[in-house]
Amino acid sequence: MTHENKHQQHENDENIENEMVDDYSDLVELGKEMEQISEENDEDKLNKTHDSETRSDLD
User: Where are the domains of the chain?
Assistant: First the structure.
């Protein structure tokens, strides 16, 4: 693969990788959505029942 082909492939990969974001406001929106999902996942994990000897937050 030539240097130009590698560069073109890299650009194609970047375009695929960044399809969800067109501009800065999209990036901010995506960040907010990801933070909300993360918080929901944290709450779900905290509310699960686990062996009390395994959970350090129940001491």
Answer: 22-46
